[in-house]
C-alpha cells in the first residue's frame, strides 16, 4: 500500500511541477478592424496613413489580453501592441542581424551558443517599450527607428534544449545582455491542414 501512495504522490508532484513552470503561452488571432479597440485605433490612425498590409490581431496568453496592429511602412514591418484598455505597450520593428550593433550581436550569439545545443534564429525584432518613456516619445522613437540604450531585441528561435527542439522567445537589452526567455507555441491554425 505504501508503494501505491508513493507512486501516486510522485505522479501528482510531477504534474504540479510542470504546471508551476513560468512559461506564458501566447496565441494570436486575426480580427476585423471593427473588433479592434476604438481608442487604440484613434491613437495610431495618423501613423497608418501611408502604411500597407494593415492587419489587426487579438493576442491572449495566460495572464492578459492585448491587441496588436501589424503593418508595413517605409519598407519596415511594424507591430504596435495595446492593452485591452487601449494603452500602448510597445512598438516592434522587424530587423536583420546586420541592423544590431556588432558588440551587442556578438553577446547575443554567445548567449545562444552557450545555452542551446543547436539554434536557428527565425525572427529578430527591435522593441521600443513604454516602460522606458511616455507613449508619444516611444512612438516617435520607434517610427524614427532610433538606436537608443533603452531598446530591446526580441528573438524568435528554434532551438535544441534538453534533448528536444522547441521554439523560444528570447529578450536581450541594447548591449546584448540576456533579459528573459520563454517557450512559445507554434503558430495558430484555425483551418484544417491537409
CATH class of the largest domain: Alpha Beta
**Mind summarizing the main beta sheet?**
9 strands, antiparallel
Number of helices: 4
CATH architecture of the largest domain: Roll
Following the backbone from N to C, one meets helices and strands in this order, namely: HEHEEEEHEHEEE
Percentage of helical residues? 25-40%
Specify Rg, calculated over alpha carbons.
Answer: 20 Å
Task: Work out the number of β strands.
Answer: 9
Commentary on this structure:
The chain has helices at 2-20, 38-44, 102-115, 135-143; strands spanning 27-31, 52-60, 65-73, 76-83, 88-95, 118-129, 152-161, 164-173, 178-184. It contains four helices and nine strands; from the N terminus they run H-E-H-E-E-E-E-H-E-H-E-E-E. 25% of the residues lie in helices and 40% in strands. The N and C termini lie far apart (49 Å). The protein has a nine-stranded antiparallel sheet. A hairpin with a 2-residue loop joins strand 3 and strand 4 (76-83). It is globular and about 60 Å long. It has 194 residues and is an alpha+beta fold. The longest helix has 19 residues, at 2-20. Residues 14-21 have low confidence and may be disordered. The protein has two domains: 24-86; 92-185, Roll (Nuclear Transport Factor 2, Chain: A).
